[in-house]
Design brief:
Elements: E1 3-5, H1 6-22, H2 26-38, H3 42-61, E2 71-79, E3 83-85, H4 90-102, E4 114-115, E5 122-123, E6 131-137, E7 142-149, H5 151-154, E8 158-162, H6 168-178, E9 187-194, H7 197-207, H8 214-220, H9 225-238, E10 253-261, E11 268-275, E12 281-286, E13 314-317, H10 323-326, E14 334-343, H11 346-357, E15 372-374, H12 399-408, E16 413-416, H13 422-431, E17 434-437, H14 443-447, E18 450-457, E19 466-480, H15 487-495
Helix pairs in contact: 1-4, 2-3, 6-9, 11-12, 12-13
Length: 503
């Protein structure tokens, strides 16, 4: 009867979360490289190149693929013959492993978890507690799957209960466009069918832990209804034309994974959870002989893809920018930004709104006049870094603050990821402002453009504090111009092969 030691278990959990912070699964790298080769959209191909280059940089430097280093999710299958050498609970040991991983001083990961979610929303500082799913099974080993799930993709999770005669394909094709691009495609769609509401959601999450194999399935053909459904959804979701980062293109999903479970005769529960461009998961088994041994990918597994600014890329000096200049920028145009930008996310926007509503001034040192705000919560720097990985967060969460910020603070531009909603686009058009998009999933690459960084307000918010960055040649794309034209509407329309009216 094998005995699993507390030390081995905790170390394995910690090592695994460090491992997935900077190593993409090899199947994802290869699938993304294949998508890059066949992509025809210039903007989407550029975005995929940034993701691939960022991926290799992170593997080489052991730094996070994305600034959102995720909420820790752990699946355990514990053999009933296993003994434990510990006085702690399974949850306590998992959380200690997460704590050690996220506070590792050589590769410190971003603390994103807040307790008291409808109250103080206090950051727990170490990314605990994890979300743990435990199953007792026959056997004498402990099978562990760890995943780090980013908020941008998790927020796009969907659920419905169809009638038993309902059409799953129709629901998926109606729902995916409603998700927007905040989940950072190209990624993977996980679908759970059956059981109850909570079982379907769990199945969808578990399906995302499987290896990408859609190309092999296409080659051999479907052997059952679930495989037929996977192939149909893969083809039809990609035919929507959403593309990388929602810019329009041939590849929105790299695979569609499906798990099912028996359900009530009156029900057809269906859950859908996307995995983003920072797809992160690892699998290992403990048998009492020591901690897990995780094998890193070889650098040869990455394609020989490079990224550099195109010949038509416009260089912009943010310190001297004028309204007349931004009025010239067109949706889909590539820019390189140099100069000072101010950062701000959800919590900072809420505090600014409260101050302005109370007639109070903004904190000393916060001057948005004629400036750009970057929606980002960076990872803490290590060694000689100016800042850690600092990719964009989903811009739509700031939509309700956009009119206020444009009308009362003097900002003229915003930088984030994914599309803006009607409310924000209306404000952008009204104030003749601009919205720029940076690539989600290229956080380490983006951070290399940041030449100085300092906190200027709300230091108590941690990663959500307001920073001032000085950047040089930061790559972005014009997403919404001063007239309200959006690349996230124009781009996908060029590649959409499915008529929404006929679905």
């Amino acid at each position: 009867m094998p005995t699993i030691s507390e030390q081995d278990f905790i170390q394995s959990i910690a090592d695994a979360f460090q491992f997935i912070s900077y190593y993409h699964p090899v199947d994802y790298i290869k699938a993304l490289a294949a998508a890059y080769d066949r992509e025809q959209s210039v903007a989407a191909k550029d975005a995929i190149a940034q993701i691939l280059v960022n991926s290799r940089m992170c593997a080489e430097s052991h730094r996070p693929i994305c600034q959102d280093t995720g909420i820790a999710v752990v699946f355990l299958k514990i053999g009933m013959n296993v003994r434990w050498n510990t006085n702690n609970s399974i949850a306590d040991m998992v959380n200690e492993g997460v704590r050690q991983a996220y506070n590792n001083q050589d590769n410190k990961l971003r603390a994103s978890i807040v307790s008291d979610p409808i109250g103080t929303r206090r950051n727990t500082k170490d990314n605990t507690p994890a979300v743990i799913h435990t199953e007792l099974v026959a056997g004498d080993t402990v099978e562990v799957t760890v995943a780090a799930k980013g908020g941008g993709s998790e927020n796009k999770s969907k659920f419905t209960i169809l009638n038993p005669s309902g059409n799953i394909v129709e629901w998926v094709l109606k729902t995916v466009p409603q998700m927007g691009a905040g989940w950072c495609p190209p990624g993977i769609l996980g679908i759970g069918i059956g059981g109850t509401a909570e079982k379907a959601m769990l199945l969808a999450k578990q399906s995302l832990m499987q290896a990408i194999d859609i190309q092999e399935l296409q080659a051999r053909g479907a052997s059952n209804k679930l495989e037929e459904l996977r192939l149909e959804l893969y083809e039809k979701v990609n035919a929507l034309g959403i593309g990388a980062q929602g810019l329009g293109g041939l590849t929105t999903v790299l695979d569609v994974k499906i798990l099912d479970y028996p359900t009530h005769a009156a029900s057809l529960p269906v859950a859908m959870i996307p995995n983003c461009a920072a797809t992160r998961h690892a699998h290992f088994t403990l048998d009492g002989t020591g901690p897990a041994n995780l094998n890193p990918p070889n650098l040869e597994d990455w394609p020989s893809v490079t990224w550099e600014a195109g010949a038509t890329t416009r260089r912009v000096n943010l310190d001297t920018i004028t309204a007349e200049q931004i009025a010239e920028w067109q949706p889909g145009e590539s820019l390189l930004l140099t100069g000072k930008i101010i950062t701000g996310r959800d919590a900072a926007h809420k505090r600014i709104a409260d101050l302005l509503a109370a007639g109070k001034p903004l904190p000393a040192g916060v001057n948005f006049k004629n400036s750009f705000i970057y929606y980002v919560g960076p990872v803490d720097p290590v060694a000689n870094e100016i800042v850690g990985p600092a990719g964009p967060t989903t811009a739509t969460r700031m939509d309700k603050f956009t009119e206020m910020m444009l009308a009362k603070t003097g900002i003229i531009g915003m930088i984030g990821k994914a599309e803006r909603g009607p409310e924000a686009i209306k404000a952008i058009k009204k104030h003749k402002a601009i919205y720029l998009m940076a690539v989600g999933g290229a956080a380490y690459l983006v951070s290399k453009a940041i030449r100085s960084a300092r906190i200027v307000a709300f230091a108590d918010l941690g990663m959500e504090a307001i920073h001032e960055f000085e950047v040089k040649d930061m790559p972005v794309t014009v997403a919404v111009d001063v007239t309200g034209k959006s690349v996230h509407q124009i781009g996908p329309a060029s590649y959409n092969k499915i008529s929404y009216q006929k679905r």
